[in-house]
C-alpha cells in the first residue's frame, strides 16, 4: 500500500504548461487503427478496446514529466494545417465531392482584422512575410493568451479551493503522523538547525527519486514503451481514484460525523472511480474529465500536505521549482527532451496527467466510437475495396499522394499502413510544420516542394477520412461520420483548439503551497499566496506568448508564492491583526 | 447566531463588490487579469508598509503606520497607473473587447476594484473567520456591533478604492492636481477617522466615512462623464 502510494507520488509529478494543438493526423491514424481492427474481425467490444489501446499508445507518450509550456510551438503546429486547408480549398480544383464537403468548413474563418493571416510558411516563400506578420502573430497569441489565462485561472483556483476547504474542515489532513518512505527524517527535534538539515535531506532524497523517475520515463518514452507508461499511469490514477478517494471520503464523513454503511460507500466509490478512470483514460465529456483531473490533483496535493513534514514541504516546493527550471530549460533537460520528442512524433500529450483547456482530446475521442462502430459493421472484404478506393481517390487528388498510396496498397496488412502513415507524418509532415525554419530546408533537400510537405498531413488525413466514409458501407453512416469530423476540421480555426495545457504537477504544487499556507489558520496568508501564484502564472503565460517555447510553470509562481507566504505570515500578519483588532481600515 | 452573522457580514462587505465583479469584470479576461494585477500591487504596497511598520520603532502608534501605508498605497496606485497607461497600446491589441481601452475609465475602475477587493479582504477575512464560530463578540465586554461595523467599513473602503482610482487616473490624465490632492487627502482622512473605531465611536466614523464615500462616488461619477441628467435617465431607465 505504501509502496503504491509512493509510486503515485512520482507518477503525477508534471509541472507543465503547454498549448494544445489539433491533430487531424491523430484522428486519422485512429481511423487507420480502426481499419486495422476491422481487418482482424473483432467483436465490437474488442475493437473498441483495441482502438483504445492503439490510440493510447499514440497519446500516452508525453506523460507526467512533461513540464513546459509551448504556446508558441503549439501555435506553430496549429496554424499551418489551417493554411493548408485554405490553400487546398482555393488552389486544388480536382478534389472530389466528399473532400469539398469536409474542407468547405475551415476556410471560412478568418479572424484577422486585416484579412487573412499571412502564414510564416508562405510568408518566407511568398514574399509577404516580415515584421507585420510576426507582430500580428504575436498579437494573436496574446489575444488568445488572455482568454486562456482565465481558462487556467479557473481550474487552478478550483483546485486550490478544494484543498483549502479540505484543510480547514478536515483536521486529518492538517497533522502529520505517518510519513512517506522518502522522508526518513521526521523533524521531531525542536532545534531549528536540525529541522533545517533534515528538511534539506528529505527534499534531496525526494528530488533524487523524482529525477530518477523522470529519467526512467524518458528512457521508456524514447524506447516507445508506451504500454508500460500507460500501465503506470493507469495504475496511478487507479490508486488515486479508488484508495485515496476512499480515504478522503472516510475522513470527510468522520469530520462531519455522518454515518454511512459500507455497501453505500462501496457503491459510491465504485461509480466515482470507474467513471473517473473512463473519463480520464478513455473518453468522457470534457468537463467531467477536467473535473476529475482537478480532483485528482487536489487529492495528490492533500497527500503531500498530509504526509510531508512541515519544513520538508517548503523545501520540496523550492527544490521542485528549481528542478522544473533545469529540466525544462536546459538543453539536455529531460522534460525538454520529452516535449521535443513528443512534438517530433506528433503525439498528443497524455491526457491523464495534463489538464487541457480545450476540446481536442474530447473531439478525438468522440470520433472513436463512430469509428469502432464502423469497424464493427463492415467486413474484411470491404477493407480490400477500401484500399482500392483510396488509391483511386488519391490518384484523383494528387499524383504524389497517389504514388504514396500505391506503395501503401502494396502492403497487405492494414496495420502496416497505419505505421506507414504515422511514420510519414512523424518524419516529414508535422515536424516540418513545427520547426519550419530548419526542417523546411530538409524537406526541400529531400526533393519535396514546400507545398507538398505542407499539404502532406492534410492529404493523409483526408485520405483516411475518405477511407472511413467508404468503408462504413452505407451512405448514412458516412454522413454521420462527416458530421462528426466537420467540427473537428472546423475547430483548428476556432479558438477552442488553441488551448493551453498545464501539467497536473503544477496544480498539485500550487495547491500544496496554498494549502500549506492555509494550514496555519491565517486567511490573509492564503489569499496573498493565491494572488501571488495567479500573478506568477500570468507572467509565465506572458513569457510563453513572447518566447514561444516550452516553459516551466512552477518557478515564477512558486517563488512569488513562497515570498508572499513567508512575508505575509511574518510581517503583514501582525500589522493587519493590529489594524483589524482596532478596526482601522487603510 | 455565529453562522448567520458570518453570512450577513460577508454579504454586507462583499455583496456589492461581488456583484460589480460578476456584472462588469467576469466576462472579460483582460479585466480579470488587470483586477488580479491590481490586487497584487496592493499586496506589494501592504508588504512595504508592513515592513516599514515592523522596522520603525514607533509600533505603539498605529496612526504612524496608517499614514505611511496610505502613502505607499497611493504610490502604488500611481505605479499601476503608469504601467497601465504604458501598456495601453498592447492592451488595445490584446483585448477582444476594445471598450477596455477606448474608455479610459474602465481600466481605472477595474484596477480600483482590484485594490478595493483585496484591501477589504485583508481587512475583514480573518475577522470573518473568527465570526463563523464558536464564540461571538459582546459576551464578555466589548461591543457586539464589532462585526457589523467592520463589515460596513470594509464595504465603504472597497467602494472608496474604486472611486479613488477612477478620479486618480483621470486626474493624472488631465493634470488635475486638485483631484489628486483630494484622493490622497480623503484616503488619509478616512483611514485616520477609522482610528476612532477603537473608542467605539461607530456612529461618527461610519457616518463620516459613508459621507465621504458618497461624495467621492459623486465626484467619480462626474469625472467619468456622468451628469445629473444622465443619472436621472439611468434611474428611470430611459
The most extensive interface, with participating residues per chain, is: A-B, 37 and 51 residues
**What is the subunit organization of this protein?**
heterodimer
Beta fraction of the residues of chain B? under 5%
Structural class of chain A, by secondary structure, is mainly alpha
Count the DSSP helices of chain A.
23
Largest sheet features of chain B: none
- N/C terminus separation of chain B: 44 Å
Count of separate DSSP helical elements of chain B: 10
Fraction in helix of chain A: over 70%
- Tell me the structural class of chain B: mainly alpha
Count of the separate structural domains of chain A = 2
Fraction in beta strands of chain A: under 5%
Task: Catalogue the unreliable spans of chain A.
Answer: 1-133, 359-497
Overall strand count of chain A = 3
Order of helices and strands of chain A: HEHHHHHHHHHHHHEHHHHHHHEHHH
Unreliable spans of chain B: none
The gross shape of chain A turns out to be globular
The structural domain count of chain B equals: 1
By DSSP, the count of extended strands of chain B is 0
Measure the end-to-end span of chain A: 52 Å
Helix content of chain B: over 70%
Family (chain B): Belongs to the APH-1 family.
Pfam families (chain B): Aph-1
Protein name (chain B): GD23180
Main location (chain B): membrane
How would you portray this structure in words?
The complex is a heterodimer of chains A (586) and B (238). Chain A is built from 23 helices and 3 strands. Chain A is mainly α and 586 residues long. Chain A has 2 domains: 2-8 and 147-260 and 295-356 and 498-581, no CATH class; 23-59 and 70-133 and 361-495, no CATH class. Chain A has a 3-stranded antiparallel β-sheet with strand order 1-3-2. Residues 1-133 and 359-497 of chain A have low confidence and may be disordered. Helices cover 74% and strands 2% of the residues of chain A. Chain B is mainly α and 238 residues long. Helices cover 80% and strands 0% of the residues of chain B. Chain B is built from 10 helices and no strands. Chain B has helices at 2-25, 29-55, 62-86, 88-94, 99-102, 104-131, 146-174, 177-193, 202-223, 228-235. The termini of chain B are far apart. Chains A and B meet through α7, α22 and α23 of A and α2, α3, α4, α6 and α7 of B. Chain A: It comes from Drosophila mauritiana (Fruit fly). Chain A: GO terms for molecular function: aspartic endopeptidase activity, intramembrane cleaving. Chain A: Residues 88-97, 406-415, 466-488 have a biased composition (Polar residues). Chain A: Probable subunit of the gamma-secretase complex, an endoprotease complex that catalyzes the intramembrane cleavage of integral membrane proteins such as Notch receptors.
Amino acid at each position: 500500500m505504501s509502496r503504491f502510494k509512493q509510486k503515485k507520488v512520482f507518477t503525477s509529478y508534471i509541472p507543465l504548461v503547454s498549448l494544445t494543438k489539433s491533430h487531424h493526423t491523430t484522428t486519422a491514424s485512429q481511423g487507420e487503427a480502426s481499419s486495422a481492427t476491422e481487418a482482424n474481425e473483432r467483436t465490437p467490444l474488442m475493437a473498441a478496446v483495441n482502438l483504445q489501446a492503439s490510440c493510447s499508445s499514440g497519446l500516452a507518450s508525453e506523460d507526467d514529466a512533461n513540464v513546459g509550456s509551448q504556446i508558441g510551438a503549439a501555435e506553430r503546429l496549429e496554424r499551418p494545417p489551417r493554411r493548408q486547408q485554405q490553400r487546398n480549398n482555393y488552389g486544388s480544383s480536382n478534389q472530389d465531392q466528399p473532400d469539398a464537403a469536409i474542407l468547405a468548413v475551415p476556410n471560412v474563418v478568418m479572424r484577422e482584422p486585416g484579412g487573412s493571416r499571412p502564414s510564416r510558411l508562405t510568408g518566407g516563400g511568398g514574399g509577404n512575410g516580415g515584421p507585420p506578420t510576426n507582430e500580428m502573430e504575436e498579437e494573436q497569441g496574446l489575444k488568445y493568451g488572455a482568454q486562456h489565462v482565465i481558462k487556467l485561472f479557473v481550474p487552478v483556483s478550483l483546485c486550490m479551493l478544494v484543498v483549502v476547504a479540505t484543510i480547514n474542515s478536515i483536521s486529518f489532513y492538517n497533522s502529520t503522523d505517518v510519513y512517506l518512505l522518502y522522508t526518513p527524517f521526521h523533524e521531531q527535534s525542536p532545534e531549528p538547525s536540525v529541522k533545517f538539515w533534515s528538511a534539506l535531506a528529505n527534499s534531496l532524497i525526494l528530488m533524487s527519486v523524482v529525477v530518477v523517475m523522470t529519467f526512467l520515463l524518458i528512457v521508456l518514452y524514447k524506447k516507445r514503451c508506451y504500454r508500460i507508461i500507460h500501465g503506470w499511469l493507469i495504475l496511478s490514477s487507479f490508486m488515486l481514484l479508488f484508495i485515496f478517494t476512499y480515504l478522503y471520503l472516510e475522513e470527510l464523513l468522520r469530520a462531519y460525523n455522518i454515518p454511512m454503511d459500507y455497501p453505500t460507500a462501496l457503491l459510491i466509490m465504485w461509480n466515482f472511480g470507474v467513471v473517473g478512470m473512463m473519463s480520464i483514460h478513455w473518453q468522457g465529456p470534457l468537463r467531467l474529465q477536467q473535473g476529475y483531473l482537478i480532483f485528482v490533483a487536489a487529492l495528490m496535493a492533500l497527500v503531500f500536505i498530509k504526509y510531508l513534514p512541515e519544513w520538508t514541504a517548503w523545501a520540496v516546493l523550492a527544490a521542485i521549482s528549481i528542478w522544473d527550471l533545469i529540466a525544462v530549460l536546459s538543453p539536455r533537460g529531460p522534460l525538454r527532451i520529452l516535449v521535443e520528442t513528443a512534438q517530433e512524433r506528433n503525439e498528443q500529450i497524455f491526457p491523464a496527467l495534463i489538464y487541457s483547456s480545450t476540446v481536442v482530446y474530447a473531439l478525438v475521442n468522440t470520433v472513436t466510437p463512430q469509428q469502432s462502430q464502423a469497424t464493427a459493421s463492415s467486413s474484411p472484404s470491404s477493407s480490400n475495396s477500401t484500399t482500392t478506393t483510396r488509391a483511386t481517390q488519391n490518384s484523383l487528388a494528387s499524383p504524389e499522394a497517389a504514388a504514396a498510396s500505391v506503395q501503401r496498397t502494396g502492403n497487405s496488412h492494414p496495420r502496416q499502413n497505419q505505421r506507414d502513415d504515422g511514420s510519414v507524418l512523424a518524419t516529414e509532415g508535422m515536424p516540418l510544420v513545427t520547426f519550419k525554419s530548419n526542417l523546411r530546408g530538409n524537406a526541400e533537400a529531400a526533393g519535396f516542394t514546400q507545398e507538398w510537405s505542407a499539404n502532406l498531413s492534410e492529404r493523409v488525413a483526408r485520405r483516411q477520412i475518405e477511407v472511413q466514409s467508404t468503408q462504413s458501407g452505407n451512405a448514412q453512416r458516412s454522413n454521420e461520420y462527416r458530421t462528426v469530423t466537420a467540427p473537428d476540421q472546423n475547430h483548428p480555426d476556432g479558438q477552442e483548439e488553441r488551448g493551453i495545457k498545464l501539467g497536473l504537477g503544477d496544480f498539485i504544487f500550487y495547491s500544496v503551497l496554498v494549502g500549506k499556507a492555509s494550514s496555519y489558520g491565517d486567511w490573509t496568508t492564503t489569499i496573498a499566496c493565491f494572488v501571488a501564484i495567479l500573478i506568477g502564472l500570468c507572467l509565465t503565460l506572458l513569457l510563453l506568448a513572447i518566447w514561444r517555447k516550452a516553459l516551466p510553470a512552477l518557478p515564477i509562481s512558486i517563488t512569488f508564492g513562497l515570498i508572499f507566504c513567508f512575508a505575509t505570515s511574518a510581517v503583514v500578519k501582525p500589522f493587519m491583526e493590529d489594524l483589524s483588532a482596532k478596526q482601522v481600515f487603510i | 447566531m455565529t453562522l448567520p452573522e458570518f453570512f450577513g457580514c460577508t454579504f454586507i462587505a462583499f455583496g456589492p463588490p461581488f456583484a460589480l465583479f460578476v456584472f462588469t469584470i467576469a466576462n472579460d479576461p483582460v479585466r480579470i487579469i488587470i483586477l488580479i494585477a491590481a490586487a497584487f500591487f496592493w499586496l506589494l504596497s501592504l508588504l512595504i508598509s508592513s515592513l516599514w511598520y515592523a522596522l520603525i520603532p514607533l509600533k505603539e502608534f498605529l496612526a504612524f503606520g496608517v499614514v505611511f501605508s496610505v502613502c505607499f498605497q497611493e504610490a502604488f496606485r500611481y505605479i499601476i497607473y503608469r504601467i497601465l497607461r504604458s501598456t495601453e497600446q498592447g492592451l488595445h491589441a490584446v483585448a477582444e473587447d476594445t471598450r477596455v481601452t477606448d474608455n479610459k475609465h474602465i481600466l481605472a475602475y477595474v484596477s480600483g476594484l482590484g485594490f478595493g477587493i483585496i484591501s477589504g479582504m485583508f481587512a475583514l477575512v480573518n475577522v470573518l473567520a473568527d465570526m463563523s464560530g464558536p464564540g461571538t463578540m459582546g459576551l464578555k465586554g466589548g461591543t457586539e456591533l464589532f462585526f457589523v461595523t467592520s463589515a460596513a467599513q470594509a464595504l465603504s473602503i472597497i467602494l472608496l478604492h474604486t472611486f479613488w482610482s477612477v478620479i486618480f487616473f483621470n486626474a493624472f490624465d488631465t493634470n488635475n492636481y486638485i483631484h489628486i490632492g483630494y484622493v490622497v487627502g480623503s484616503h488619509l482622512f478616512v483611514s485616520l477617522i477609522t482610528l476612532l473605531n477603537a473608542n467605539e465611536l461607530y456612529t461618527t466614523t461610519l457616518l463620516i466615512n459613508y459621507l465621504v464615500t458618497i461624495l467621492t462616488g459623486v465626484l467619480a461619477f462626474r469625472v467619468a462623464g456622468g451628469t445629473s441628467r444622465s443619472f436621472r435617465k439611468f434611474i428611470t431607465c430611459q
